[in-house]
Design a protein that fits this description.
The complex is a heterodimer of chains A (264) and B (183).
Chain A (H helix, E strand, L loop, with lengths): L1 H19 L4 H13 L7 H12 L10 H10 L12 E2 L3 H9 L3 H13 L14 H11 L4 E4 L1 E2 L5 E11 L4 E9 L8 E8 L8 E6 L7 E5 L9 E9 L14 E4 L3
Chain B lengths: L4 H6 L3 H22 L3 H18 L10 H25 L21 H10 L4 H13 L3 H8 L3 H19 L11
Helix pairs in contact in B: 2-3, 2-4, 3-4, 6-8, 7-8
Classes of the chains: A alpha+beta (264), B mainly alpha (183).
Chain lengths: 264, 183
């Protein structure tokens, strides 16, 4: 009884911290577990309160979204069905890319072509030093001494029919890239891929979240920058899972198409 | 019953995302500009927020929350996530690179009835509880920044934040949840 009360207090404390300051990965996991034990409590009750408080502080006359930004968002947004990935696919042939895009029709096609020429960022600002993920990956391999490269191993043939690719990571740069060919395209409204980094400095039950990403249809090769949520000290395995849109805090690892094991 | 914009977005209505941008672009921009003084940063965050909205529109339930609350919640989470990442970076950076908190002068605002209600309820909190919550929400300060700003120990700040949010929850009644809020 006392433990239950203590759990409930802890749940409320985490909800409050989430709403005001955010939680780290371990705390998010704890919140998810505690909320599951208290179905009468919505884990985001206090987020709603915080959102309402913040709304109350906004001027009655709202700012207007700058026209150029509005236009960029419109171009970047998907059409009714899935036609866009949040990652920038790299293509072996610019002509193939154009041909593929041309089959999609309408303004989405125009947007995709524009994106292909503008590089990985849609932002209307100088791109002088902006590297494509492919260039950044190559640079990391060429210039950072401790960069490692490991090939993916297929563990789920359904999701990855004839996959290839690798993962590149540098501890000193805290930067890395995943390269995929043959990994099945996903619909981000149904599911997304998520990277997990197993670090010898972390509890293996809670690998580091490496970010969610999508594989667009028709891409020959996709390179995805790794977005580790915590510093990675000594990775020994990288794993790709398929999760609900937005990813999860802790994966059930039920669908795990690819692994990359580092030889320590 | 006419579906809400977010329901239309979730239902793959091609014009709905445009309408969502028209209706809520200014709101998201206002929320983001409060925390991101640099234009380029703010533009990045707004794009990410609209991608989050697109991905999570199917989780919105109009029977339990206003669309603007759902949009603000998504925006706040994106901003908090960004702030925590930056905080991790500045932990290893020279102190001179730590961003200064925003000015003490809070914006002079007009609020609608619902918003006025929540601010009224906040008046029932202790001064310290209210101050900590306002610094967190209105200024986006971390717990350690608040501790430094108001010269309190970190433990005391955490305690005021926790007690304040619990009291608010109790005073409001249990706040209406947004379905599927684990964005």
């Amino acid at each position: 009884m006392m433990a239950e009360s203590s759990n409930f207090d802890r749940l409320l404390k985490l909800m409050g911290e989430q709403a005001l300051f955010g939680l780290d990965q371990g705390e998010q996991h704890e919140l998810t577990e505690l909320a599951a034990k208290h179905p009468n409590v919505q884990a985001d009750e206090m987020d709603v309160l915080a959102a309402e408080i913040e709304l109350s502080a906004l001027p009655a006359t709202q700012l207007k979204l700058p026209d150029h930004l509005q236009q960029q968002i419109r171009l970047a947004m998907p059409s009714g069905d899935f036609t866009r990935s949040v990652v920038e696919p790299t293509h072996t042939s610019q002509r193939d890319w154009m041909r593929h895009a041309a089959s999609w029709g309408g303004w989405v096609t125009a947007a995709l072509i524009l994106i292909a020429f503008m590089g990985p960022s849609f932002k209307n600002r100088p791109q002088v030093t902006q590297l494509t993920p492919n260039e950044a990956r190559a640079q990391l391999l060429a210039t950072v001494d401790d960069s490692l490269r490991v090939d993916w191993t297929v563990t789920d043939a359904e999701a990855a029919r004839s996959p290839a690719g690798d993962v590149v990571w540098s501890n000193t740069a805290q930067e890395g890239y995943m390269r995929f060919t043959g990994l099945a395209a996903n619909d981000p409204r149904q599911s997304q891929y998520q990277l997990w980094i197993f670090d010898s400095q972390q509890d293996e039950r809670y690998p580091i979240d490496g970010g969610v990403f999508d594989i667009p249809p028709g891409a020959d090769e996709v390179i995805v920058p790794i977005a580790a949520k915590l510093d990675v000290a000594r990775p020994y395995m990288f794993a790709i899972t398929i999760e609900k849109p937005g990813g999860v805090v802790v994966s059930s690892r039920e669908r795990l198409p690819l692994l990359a094991q580092v030889e320590l | 019953m006419i579906p809400s914009i977010l329901q239309q977005v979730a239902a793959n209505d091609q014009s709905a995302m445009d309408e969502c941008l028209n209706r809520y672009g200014g709101l998201v921009w206002a929320l983001v500009k409060r925390r991101c003084p640099l234009q380029a940063d703010a533009e990045d965050v707004v794009q990410e927020v609209f991608m989050d909205i697109w991905k999570n529109a199917h989780r919105y339930d109009p029977s339990i929350a206003e669309e603007s609350t759902f949009i603000a919640m998504i925006t706040r989470r994106r901003l908090i996530d960004r702030s925590r990442r930056q905080q991790r970076l500045v932990d290893t950076a020279p102190l001179t690179e730590v961003p200064e908190p925003a000015s003490d002068d809070l914006p002079n605002v007009e609020v609608n009835d619902e918003a006025a209600r929540i601010r009224e309820i906040m008046q029932q909190l202790s001064d310290d509880e209210r101050r900590v919550i306002e610094l967190a929400i209105d200024r986006g300060m971390s717990q350690s920044q608040i501790a430094e700003h108001i010269k309190m120990s970190l433990g005391t700040v955490k305690s005021h934040a926790r007690r304040g949010m619990l009291r608010l929850r109790s005073l409001v009644g249990v706040a209406k949840p947004v379905k599927g809020g684990d964005l």
